[in-house]
Amino acid sequence: MSLTFIIAASLLLKFSFDLIADLLNLQSFDRGLPEEFRDTIDEPTYQKSLTYTAAKIKLGIFRSVYDLAILFAVWFLGGFNLLDGYLRGFNLSELATGLWFIGLIFLANYFLLWPFKIYGTFVLEEKFGFNRTTLKTFIADTLKSLALAILIGGSLTVLVLYLFQTAGPVAWFYVWLIVSAVFLFLTYLVPRLVLPLFYRFTPLGDGELKEAITSLARTTGFPLAGIFVIDGSRRSSKANAFFTGLGRLKRIALFDTLIEQQTVPELTAVLAHEIGHYQRKHVWRHLAAAIIQFGLTFFLFSFLANGAALSLAFGLAQPSLYANLLFFFIAYAFLDRVFKIAHNVFSRGYEYEADAFAARLTGRPESLISGLKQLAKNNLAHLAPHPFYVFINYSHPPLLARFAALRNNL
Questions:
Q1: Using a CB cutoff of 8 Å and minimum separation of 24, what contacts does 22-25 make?
Q2: Is 355 among the catalytic positions?
Q3: Tens digits of per-residue pLDDT, 20-70?
Q4: Crossing angle, helix 79-88 and helix 94-112, to 10 degrees?
Q5: Of 13, 74, 279, 405, which residue is the least packed, with the fewest Cβ within 10 Å?
Q6: Which distant-in-sequence residues (6+ apart) come within 8 Å of 281 by Cβ?
Q7: For this structure, is 274 an active site residue?
Q8: Looking at 260, 274, 353, 366, which residue is catalytic?
Q9: How confident is the model over 93-152, as pLDDT tens digits?
Q10: CB 382: neighbour CB atoms within 10 A?
Q11: Helix axes 282-302, 333-362, angle to 10 degrees
Q12: Using CA atoms, how far apart are residues 297 and 226, in angstroms rounded to an integer?
């Protein structure tokens, strides 16, 4: 059995796996509005949430078909080999040729999928009343994202190729250490330097909400370095909240839309949930899992890095390390899906733990429940997703399951 067949079959298997989950989720719409939500969501809003969910799923399916069709067309019509031959004609160094090869394919893929981003923002999100992004903001976000991807991704690509060229059998280990260090550094850097390129962070003004959050942090020993409001309303009416930072300095970030939509007790309960993640060390566990996966990934790549099998499987006449690197991550998609499912299993467990922590801390589990209901209503969340779809896609448990667990902890 050829490696070409094995890779193609794994990609089709991943696609089929996701498609089955999507179709099952579409079939879950006939259950009716759950009784639990009738105090918050009316029937028209529920029907709107189903229509929104269906539209997103169908767009996702179409994008997956499109993406796979483009890949197979380029692959089996010899597109990768044509590009490689063209670039080799410039007689650049192996590193430079590799950077151009990977970079041009990345840019082509980015812009081939760009119509889905445009449609999702200006048609789908607009239709359901979420979009507030202007064309100017959309273009600016695209250019900033591309610049960051080229800067960070290009630098890492050169480093990975150089180490696998020069460091011998232990190259994967050095790459693992460096990529992990960059990952941790970006985890610290992104909230401070990258997100402000896209959003305005304004310190939360004095008042009841600030006093409640500060009291909560003091009670739990949460090392609060600041509370900020994000102007998320410039792009969407959807709401969110998160905390950032590693070590002893944490920042809480609240979307302005969230503050507009929820009461102080609800916001306090939601933030108590986030503090629960910190207290239970869930963030560090997620980081550790990601770093372990990096190590396993580059260890597996080390067996194929300097061989001919991957390059030949994708139709290249002249095998190369840089082509092997790109093709490895294409072929890795199914295994990455397996890792993602495992991550989601652990993540859902962490969410239950954080919910329980918030309920005990505030003594008001109903505040967290009502806050989550409001989020579901305002974001048109799917209230009763299919269990199989939840299993492979959800990092959070379905709301009904979370509510039952919260009440069981009373």
A1: 22/57, 22/60, 22/61, 22/389, 24/386, 24/388, 24/389, 25/53, 25/57, 25/382, 25/385, 25/386, 25/389
A2: yes
A3: 999 999 998 877 899 999 999 999 999 999 999 999 999 999 999 999 999
A4: 140
A5: 13
A6: none
A7: yes
A8: 274
A9: 999 999 999 999 999 999 999 999 999 999 999 999 999 999 999 999 999 999 999 999
A10: 22
A11: 170
A12: 37
**What are 165's two structure tokens?**
């060229």
Tokens at 278, concatenated = 């910190």
